[in-house]
Amino acid sequence: MSVEKAPIANISVIANAILNSSVSSIQCQWSKKSEIFDNIYNYPAISVPGRVSTTVGNRPVIDIIRHGIVVRIEIDSKHQEVAQKIWRNNKYGLIFIGSVSPLGVGGRELNILQGGRHFYVELPSGVYQNFYQNYGNKIIVVPIVPANPNFSKDPVKYLSNFISPKSSPEYDVNYNPLLDNVSGDISLENKYGVMIGMPNYAFYMALERSWLLSFNSSYNSLVSYSGGKYQIEVGVLQNISRAPPNIWYPILMKSKIEQGDFLAISLLPNASNLGTRLAQAIEKLLDNSNVSYKDHEKMMMLSNASDIFGSNAIIGTPIFYTNRYSNKGDENRSLAESCSNELFIGEVSGIASVNQTGAIVYIVKKIKLPKTYSEAVELANQLGTSNIFTSLESNSS
């Protein structure tokens, strides 16, 4: 996927014009962002293979990281047998919707870290052998199991306390016209966009130099070598996932591209022309890190974060959106009262273009979160990953 060749340098002008405008949907996203980092169940999940082939020795460690989200589902009556085998109960289950790196080996060892919790993938035979090669860099749906003693003791109690992110298929995104003083065509087919929230752990990883070092670097503290394969220190990622995510603010464009996907334009953290809101987001990050940065250290951290934002590690990152209600009488309510909840609307499914001016174009796949096992299978069908569930059903019969 590539964006048409054209003056895409204007992305920075357009992004800042929207981000710093007083349009109600922008104000809502800015004022309601705390719903993402204050609610542990809205935290993005991090996926990482348990083992990686030695053929990746010269690659940076960040290449094996992907993002996603964890969702609780209810079990329909016709799927209770397979659910009992996976989750040891026939009422609730957990699934991961997100991406995986193609560099892993041994699919059964896929780790999912979210909110300080550790989950692992329960894959049937016939799927896991080529799991990473078949599903790497795609958005997938896969059942996961908590690696927690409390789950083993009482699965129903453990899962009944799990809350899924809010998602509404009936909720329409209220796109705003780009401001009149923005000139030039960025070749994204329209002049409408809206600010969205993209929570992720790029900034946290940017603080640890090892993420951008190669696997075989003697200075890398994140990997170990055993049995001809590299292994990742999962505990480091578990600690990262425990912290509230940082939120970045791309602009979701109205035009759809192939297969109904959308484009989102953004500025990278080290762009020279960041507007007020993005600059404030970075300053808050630095304040919350409790580290006193010198100017050159700050620039290095922002450069590292930009490298991560421009890498495949960002695939699977959840996208949240909020907007002001337009019901009669809402004009008399305060902004906080008239804005919707933060709603999950989809995930980053790829990178269309990175520009030398510090602009990036993401591909965003709109996703309706499933509430039941059957809906999870339906979503897997839509994403082309249904054979995971088909194999599970076959093994349980």
Features:
397 residues; alpha+beta; 18 strands; disordered N terminus
How many domains? 1
Instruction: Name the overall outline.
Output: globular
Q: What is the count of helical runs?
A: 14
**Secondary structure: helix percent:** 25-40%
What is the percentage of strand-forming residues? 15-25%
Structural class: alpha+beta
Spatial extent as radius of gyration: 21 Å
Distance between the termini: 40 Å
Mean pLDDT: 82
Low-confidence stretches: 1-9
Biggest sheet, in brief? 7 strands, antiparallel
Query: What is the count of β-strands?
Result: 18
The neighbouring-strand order within the major sheet is 8-9-14-15-18-17-16
Please describe the topology of this protein.
Elements: H1 11-19, H2 24-31, H3 34-37, E1 45-49, E2 51-53, E3 66-74, H4 80-87, E4 92-98, E5 110-114, E6 117-121, H5 131-135, E7 140-146, H6 149-153, H7 155-160, E8 176-177, E9 192-195, E10 198-200, H8 202-206, E11 223-226, E12 229-232, H9 234-242, E13 246-248, E14 251-256, E15 262-267, H10 276-288, H11 295-309, E16 318-321, H12 335-338, E17 343-354, E18 359-366, H13 373-383, H14 387-396
Antiparallel strand pairs: 1-3, 1-5, 2-12, 3-4, 4-7, 5-6, 6-7, 8-9, 9-14, 10-13, 11-12, 14-15, 15-18, 16-17, 17-18
Please describe what this structure looks like:
By secondary structure, this protein is an alpha+beta fold. The chain has one domain (8-392). Helices cover 28% and strands 24% of the residues. The protein contains 14 helices and 18 strands. It has helices at 11-19, 24-31, 34-37, 80-87, 131-135, 149-153, 155-160, 202-206, 234-242, 276-288, 295-309, 335-338, 373-383, 387-396, and strands at residues 45-49, 51-53, 66-74, 92-98, 110-114, 117-121, 140-146, 176-177, 192-195, 198-200, 223-226, 229-232, 246-248, 251-256, 262-267, 318-321, 343-354, 359-366. A hairpin with a 2-residue loop joins strand 11 (223-226) and strand 12. The longest helix has 15 residues, at 295-309.
